[in-house]
C-alpha cells in the first residue's frame, strides 16, 4: 500500500477519533446535565412534598382555631335568646316588648334577670324582615326557662303560635320566633340545615345549647350537625 494511501487513512482515522472524542464529551456533558436535572427534580419533589405537608398542617391549625373561635363565640352567647320578626316601631321600648312576651308565654322572669336587650343590625340589609331582638339574661338557666316557656306556649295551640297580635301590634298577623342566639358560624350552619331539611323532607331541625340537630321523622335517630361537611354527607 502506498504511503499516500496510508497517510490518507491515518488522517481519516484521526478525524474519526477526534469526532468520537467530541461525541463522547458531548454525551458525558449531557449525562452530567441529566444527572443535575435529575437531582434538581428530586429536590423539587421533596420540596413540593414538604410544602404539601406544611400546607396540610396550616389548614389543620386554621380549622382547629376556627372551631375554637366558634366555640368561644357560642359560649359567650349561652345566656342569650334571639327574638325574630317582631315588627319595629319608632317609639318602641325593647325591654317592654320582652316583658310583654314573657307575660304572653307565661314566663315569670323579673327585670333584674334581664341584663340587656336590644335590636341588632341585619346580616342581609336588603331583607324586609325587622331586626332581631337579642336578650341577655343573667344565666343560661334563666335563658332556657324563657325558651322552654315559648315552646310550651306554641304547643298549646299550634294554629295560633306566638305572633304579633299577642303583643297587641296592629296590622297583619306576623309569626314571632324565639330561639337560642347562635354564633355567626352556627347561624349559617342552622340556615343550611333548614334548607337541606326542606330539600330532603327532614321533619325536625332544632338547636340545643348551641348545637344543631336534624331528624328525618319520629322513628329515625337524630343527627348532630357539627359542620357543613357532615351536613352534605347526611343525605
Strand-helix topology:
Blueprint: H1 3-75, E1 80-84, H2 94-104, E2 114-119, E3 133-137, H3 140-156, E4 177-180, H4 184-199, E5 204-208, E6 211-215, E7 222-225, H5 228-234
Antiparallel strand pairs: 1-3, 1-4, 2-3, 5-6, 6-7
List keywords for this structure.
FP_C, 53% helix, 3 domains, 4-stranded antiparallel β-sheet, coiled coil, 3-stranded antiparallel β-sheet, rod-shaped, single chain, Alpha-Beta Plaits, 5 helices, alpha+beta, 235 residues, 7 strands, FP protein C-terminal domain-containing protein
CATH fourth-tier homologous superfamily of the largest domain: L1 transposable element, RRM domain
CATH architecture of the largest domain: 2-Layer Sandwich
Main beta sheet strand tally, sense and closure: 4 strands, antiparallel
If strands are numbered along the chain, what order do they take across the biggest sheet?
2-3-1-4
Number of helices: 5
Outline type: rod-shaped
- Portion in helices: 40-55%
What count of domains describes the coordinates?
A: 3
Number of strands: 7
Instruction: Report the CATH C-level class of the largest domain.
Output: Alpha Beta
How far apart lie the N and C ends?
Answer: 95 Å
SSE series: HEHEEHEHEEEH
* Rg (CA only): 37 Å
Helix and strand content put the structural class at: alpha+beta
Domain FP protein C-terminal: 183-235
Coiled coil: 6-82
Pfam families: Baculo_FP_2nd
Protein name: FP protein C-terminal domain-containing protein
Amino acid at each position: 500500500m502506498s504511503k499516500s494511501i496510508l497517510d490518507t487513512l491515518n488522517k481519516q482515522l484521526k478525524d474519526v477519533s477526534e469526532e468520537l472524542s467530541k461525541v463522547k464529551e458531548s454525551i458525558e456533558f449531557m449525562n452530567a446535565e441529566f444527572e443535575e436535572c435529575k437531582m434538581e427534580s428530586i429536590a423539587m419533589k421533596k420540596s413540593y412534598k414538604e410544602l404539601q405537608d406544611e400546607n396540610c398542617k396550616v389548614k389543620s391549625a386554621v380549622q382547629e382555631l376556627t372551631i375554637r373561635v366558634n366555640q368561644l363565640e357560642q359560649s359567650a352567647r349561652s345566656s342569650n335568646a334571639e327574638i325574630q320578626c317582631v315588627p319595629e316601631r319608632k317609639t318602641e321600648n325593647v325591654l317592654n316588648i320582652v316583658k310583654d312576651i314573657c307575660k304572653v308565654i307565661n314566663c315569670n322572669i323579673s327585670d333584674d334577670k334581664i341584663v340587656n336587650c336590644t335590636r341588632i343590625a341585619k346580616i342581609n340589609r336588603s331583607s324586609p324582615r325587622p331586626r332581631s331582638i337579642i336578650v341577655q339574661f343573667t344565666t343560661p338557666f334563666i335563658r332556657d326557662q324563657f325558651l322552654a316557656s315559648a315552646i310550651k306556649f306554641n304547643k298549646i295551640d299550634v294554629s295560633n303560635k306566638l305572633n304579633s297580635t299577642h303583643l297587641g301590634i296592629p296590622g297583619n298577623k306576623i309569626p314571632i320566633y324565639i330561639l337560642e342566639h347562635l354564633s355567626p358560624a352556627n347561624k349559617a350552619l342552622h340556615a343550611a340545615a333548614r334548607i337541606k331539611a326542606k330539600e330532603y323532607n327532614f321533619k325536625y331541625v332544632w338547636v340545643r345549647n348551641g348545637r344543631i340537630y336534624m331528624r328525618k321523622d319520629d322513628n329515625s335517630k337524630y343527627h348532630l350537625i357539627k359542620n357543613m361537611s357532615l351536613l352534605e354527607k347526611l343525605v
